[in-house]
# Entry
Amino acid sequence: MAKTPPLPAAQPAGPTAPPPAPAPPPSTPAVPARFATSLEEACRALSRRHAPEAVSAFYGVEKRAGRLRDTEAAYGARFDAFMQTPA
# Structure
């Protein structure tokens, strides 16, 4: 009698599920906390040099966009761009 090779392990019928996706990296803030400025602080600084109506409009745009913490330089650059947009 000839010996037969062992059968491979049984696999479930049908398609196999793909391996689980790797976990996303932990979220890190885009701006380190020690350099971040709140939107209110940035607008307070901007209001010393610019018209309050413009700063108020900028505050509304930034708040709706969800940009509540960033560097003063980034807020300043976005404010300059905001002032260049037509009314």
